[in-house]
Amino acid sequence: MLSSFDYGSMLFVLATVIGLLNERFIRIPRPIALLIGALAVSLGLILLSALVPGVHLAARTEARLADSDLSAVLLDGVLALLLFATSLGTDVSGLRRRARPIFLLATVGVVLAMVIFAFGIHAALAFAGMPVPLGWCLGLGAILAPTDAVVVEQLLARVNLPQEIRDIITGESLFNDGAAVVLYFAALATATGADSVVGHGKLVGTMLYAGGGGALLGLATGWLALKAMQRVRAEHLVVTLSLALVLATYRIAVWMELSGPIAVVVSGLMLTQFRAAGDEAAPWRRRIKEFWSMIDEIINTLLFMLIGFEVLQIPLGAAGLWPVLAAIPLALAARFVSVAVPLSLGRRHPQDAAAGIAIMTWTGLRGGISIALALALPQSDYHEILTAICYAVVIFSVIVQGLSTGRVARLLYGGKH
Amino acid sequence: MWSTFDSGALLLVFATVVAIVNDHTLRLPRPIAMLVAALAASAVILAVSALVPGSNLAGLTERRLVGADLPDVLLNGVLALLLFATSLRTDLAGLRRHARPIFWLATLGVAIAMLVFGIGIHAVLRLIGIDIPLAWCLVLGAILAPTDAVVVEQLVAKVNLPADVKALISGESLFNDGAAVVFFFAALAAATGADTPGHGHIVLQLLIEGFGGALLGFIAGLLARQAMRFSRDPNIAVTISLALVLATYRSATLLELSGPIAVVVAGLTMRNWPVSARAAAPWRRRISQLWSMVDELVNTLLFLLMGFEVLTIPLGTTSVIAILCAIPLSLAARLASVTIPLAFARSLPRADRLKSIGVLTWTGLRGGISIALVLGLPDSPYRETLAVICYALVIFSVVVQGLTTPAVVSLIYGAGAPGAADKG
Known about the structure:
The structure holds 2 protein chains of 2 kinds.
Chain A: H1 4-26, H2 30-51, H3 57-67, H4 70-88, H5 92-97, H6 99-127, H7 134-143, H8 149-156, H9 163-191, H10 200-231, H11 237-255, H12 260-273, H13 283-310, H14 318-345, H15 353-362, H16 368-375, H17 383-413
Helix pairs in contact in A: 1-2, 2-13, 4-11, 4-12, 4-13, 4-16, 6-7, 6-9, 6-14, 7-9, 8-9, 9-10, 9-12, 10-11, 10-12, 11-12, 14-15, 14-17, 15-17, 16-17
Chain B: H1 4-24, H2 30-51, H3 57-66, H4 72-88, H5 92-95, H6 99-127, H7 134-144, H8 149-158, H9 163-191, H10 199-230, H11 234-254, H12 259-272, H13 282-309, H14 317-342, H15 350-362, H16 368-375, H17 383-413
Helix pairs in contact in B: 1-2, 2-3, 2-13, 2-17, 4-12, 4-13, 4-16, 6-7, 6-9, 6-14, 7-9, 7-17, 8-9, 9-10, 10-11, 10-12, 11-12, 11-13, 14-15, 14-17, 15-17, 16-17
């Protein structure tokens, strides 16, 4: 009997091999390399089981993935850890200067992206003869609205962009998860008819309550952790303390029906960015960053490989192919509008606006959180087609958009800025 | 809905508070502080649920924290991670001076401790009317044979001992885990009747498992080291070391070799081969950072859990008597297991040997490995009794022996002996 421990060890060995090969021969950002590697292995498994009779490797891997209840683990724990790790690496002064566009992108932008994509995909699916109710389409729109903070971060490290755009992109990717998660649950509630009284006003109220309350909670726990940290002489305690901070904040938020993602991000910012005089160079600050960059590394390694393997779970019939293909340009269009509107609202001089909007549209990579939300969709008749569309958009955005971002940036901004 | 993450969050918050309070008041070694605090919290919980009718707090905690049957992943994983982390901290070059006594302590000593304690507890339990087959008693002996590297290290750092004795103590605690785990699985196989081995068979099996595991670990460690040198990105080192631990442990289990030994050897090889290489490659720093943190975290959680396990112990008169007999017995077993191998320790002057035997006996704290092993015992009618004795001994050794070590050391060596008084 293979345990999940075995699968863990296989994943890490595979990740090592792919990482080494990539570093030596290919040199693309590591999450993208891992995703492509896992996709290649999945294809190999499928081919092998198709060609060699009696070998059911693909089916076995698939069964194993389906068993492992990934969605619960991802949503309950991994997401919190990831967001916290990303928030620790963020430069908060940059965020503060761009607070307005970031706020607009993470709220209005997310709603726009969700609504446009949902109506578009609803029409496309109806056209292809497999109608899906609008409620479910809105759920899918919410799943695909947030950009992935982690991939975006790694991507930005490699391209040459004006600092302002950089700050906005990072800030947006950090904060749009919160709004998207709230919208996702609201859309699901309408789709499954759990409560049919989700009016527009109530939705906005929930978003504000969950977001604002989450931020307050994060501020409070982050401040507590900071005070605790300043009183401790043993610097190795940072590991226990920061883990306690993340998990407890996230669970309390969930328990109070606030936004866990936002609470965790704010608590991380509070802990590392709020500097008392004379405390800047305390050794624990370095230590905490080191620890979380490693956690980040490990979780992302696993996450992107899992995304690659989840392909095995998609039953791709010819009928589903057209809506899936249509979803890709549709996602780009929705992203474009969701960026263009908030940016023109938030800006006083629109000279550079066009280039900024274009680059932000193209760097809107989806990732871990979309996959986690899609996996968490309740069973229904539409489950398969919805997850298929979600994977297609995520994989396209990571591989195609991710790999071409450098070129697009050079095209838009010239060799330098 | 209560999830594992909730329990994790609670435990970690508790650990943080305890660590901070301890830092400012008592300044105990951290594992000891964790254990004492968890014990105190358990006592409070028990008292509350006894006094306030209707609030079944103890039952609740038990179900949530302890009885939330720690998944297999944790049991298998924790052991591998702990051993690997410990082996990475080991500097072979530093141990070489005392290689002989350490070798004997970690092999012969472990065997003696297991046999003396196993046979003794078998007799004692029979006297008070609990009949447990000898094989199961030997399992318990193996569980309680290894000393805990993490606690011992923290303890030794705080007292004033001759450097020779310090090196012996920490070297022993690093290496006896491997032998103990092999003995544990051998005794377990005999106890569950998986195969009915004769004495020759057991020895042969031990040799195959041990050496096969060591070989596997050596090869895996070399491979991992080559991979690290091949790469310039220190981030990959993190992935590589995780892959090394998990893959080595699982392939050892698959091949029916000793996983613990394979993991320890893999870690030693990766860090120390060739022994002369002391290059400050960035991956070395990165890896030792990661693993010292893992070590820290796993130990914090293990010692907390250990304290809360008290809630699950059904304390009757017979088990109290059994525990009271087991404590001197385990000290006697430890004394025997230290005395005989130290006869080989020519590096110590004869006059010092008696003193070092005394100190080594008293500093033989049990800890994480023992708990991890006992949690992994398969279900049997004897599991509960064995677990109770194991917890009691671990707790006694950590709390009583751990806290009195400074006093005992200054008693043995005289207040001012090797240096100044012990200031932590």
